[in-house]
Amino acid sequence: MNLRVPEELDRRLERLAAEEHTSKSALLLQGAELVLQRHARRREISEGLDFVMSHDAELLTRLEDA
Length: 66
Known about the structure:
By secondary structure, the protein is mostly helical. Helix content is 83%, strand content 0%.
């Protein structure tokens, strides 16, 4: 895989990699993992809300009127 990184982002990655004593590649892999985790978490939350809305709709309506 080839990845083109804008110059400014590359400079920032270079500085962070030096501070963290790691490679830019390792930082980008960590970033990709974080994006995937965030997406999965949002999906879980959305599915949970959908479940509550479909299974507890009557209860939510009663609470709304209380």
